[in-house]
Amino acid sequence: MQQQWWQRKLFFGLGIVGAITFVLESVIGSLMWPAYQSLAHPIALLTAQGAPFRGGFLVMQVLASLAVTVALVAIYAYHRYQRERKMMQASAGMIFSWSAWLIVTNFWPNARMADYVLAESISGKSIVLVLILLALAGTMYWYAQAVMTIDWISLRNVLTVVSILIVLFAALEFGMYLINWPLRGFFDILTLDTMALGMGFLSWYFMRQAI
């Protein structure tokens, strides 16, 4: 039988690389730019208009996002090949939500640095991103329940927890904004890192089964 393109570990490995890149972004930002306070400022400050390393972090985000997208497409191709309709539909939902997040995050211009530091109002981009994150969490939860039909219990448990934590951390970030506590950046990082780690675990789960 001819090997399918998605059966190669490389394509699932890209998802892991992309996830690790997202997790390291705030760490690298703090090391390269001491003015960036990861606990208080949202990670979007790194790519804000006028930020000193804006171009580099934009490239990092786009490449990491595309790497995860490749892994998600490979997962969808697997389920399509296996004729697993529920998982195919749920993985397609994740691809759509992730792609929407990729486009809005990287190609909708960020506000100025002062807007993120002072946080006097919530931007339209921030509202759209929250809605997309909720949609992504929903499709991840949908996928987690779907894989129970093939008894992938560990994958189901991890993605269920991840999807719930994404919603929880996003809500806490919004709460920090409303009460003006300097922990908005902390919960922003937790939201994004949880999302990235979920995608990384999903990619790893498939990579260990690939040829």
Report on this structure:
- By secondary structure, this protein is mainly alpha-helical.
- It has seven helices and no strands.
- The longest helix has 28 residues, at 54-81.
- The two termini are 13 Å apart.
- 39% of the residues are buried.
> For the residues shown, what is the average pLDDT?
89
The assembly state of the depicted protein chains is: single chain
| Rg over C-alpha atoms, rounded to the nearest angstrom | 17 Å
Low-confidence stretches: none
Figure out the total of helices: 7
Counting DSSP E segments of at least 2 residues, the number of strands comes to 0
* Category from helices, strands and their pairing: mainly alpha
What would the principal axes of the Cα set say about the shape? globular
How much of the sequence lies in strands comes to: under 5%
- Helix amount, in percent? over 70%
Run of helices and strands: HHHHHHH
**How is the main sheet built?**
none
| Separation, N- and C-terminal Cα atoms | 13 Å
Key structural traits:
211 residues; mainly alpha
